[in-house]
């Protein structure tokens, strides 16, 4: 018995929608009048977004205002007669030793504080028991709350006298190096003492940043390294430190910026003169820009005041350059770290 033929006008059951029917193509155009519904924006979100944008713009405006003020007030010192400037010399001869002392003291502090901050942060994050780590973390953070004048008094009355025997030992056995050539200062108020005080001052912020970065290391990576037979030191060297490279650079640059701008403690500790010297244990030391401004500002007027403001402009430019280089290094090393894994 034959089956009845299928209706030629009906489409086959397996044909997709829009297939040819009776030689004509049928398509359904998309509806252009259907709008996608946007999620409603709450009033609180708008206020918070506006406040955040406003804060960012305010920071930029304040930074630009400081730069413009320093440039306008300090510009006369660049073209002033040398007889009107401190020391009867041109501006760059005046600011050169100060810039050298600023960078030199900050580098000494950074060389001392960087390994200490890494070691303390590793001890708190990976070695110490939880209760001890918590208390030690609070203690390190409290160091940031100590005023600069207290650090200066500590440097003058405690650190400097106790450092004199160490300076004499360095002069005796390492005097062939230009850094310990001597003669040793009898008071201990040297560039090395100032660098030690600055190192203690920048230690809290560097340790706090390094500690938080070390704690962000993925736990699975640490456990996998230990499971493969690595010791704790090997796990830290192969897992934690590579992951935290960008954070370590950031903390170092933050500490360097803090050391470059420190004023009162350096002014109190350092026995400064207008020289350029690499000897860190001698009584002949270069001053810093910030300390020189603090000491000479009350007695300065006219073009000498403009010279101090111009030196502040130089310090501003140096600090800005250091932060720019730090940001470039962090961005370059970010792709090699585990932060994006």
From TrEMBL:
Please verify whether the record's keywords include Hydrolase: no
Where in or outside the cell it occurs: the entry states:
Cell membrane
User: Could you list the residue ranges that cross the membrane?
Assistant: 47-71, 91-124, 136-160, 190-209, 240-260, 305-326
Question: What residue spans carry the region label Disordered?
Answer: 1-37
Which Pfam families does the annotation name?
BPD_transp_1
For biological process, the GO terms are:
phosphate ion transport
Membrane topology is: Multi-pass membrane protein
Per UniProt, the ranges with Low complexity bias are 1-25
Question: GO: which molecular function terms?
Answer: phosphate transmembrane transporter activity
Question: Locate the ABC transmembrane type-1 domain: which residues?
Answer: 99-326
Q: What are the record keywords, sorted?
A: Cell membrane, Membrane, Phosphate transport, Transmembrane, Transmembrane helix, Transport
Repeat as a keyword? no
Q: What does this protein do?
A: Part of the binding-protein-dependent transport system for phosphate; probably responsible for the translocation of the substrate across the membrane.
> Do you know which NCBIfam families this protein is assigned to?
phosphate_pstC
Protein name, UniProt field: Phosphate transport system permease protein
Provide the species name.
Frankia nepalensis
The gene is pstC
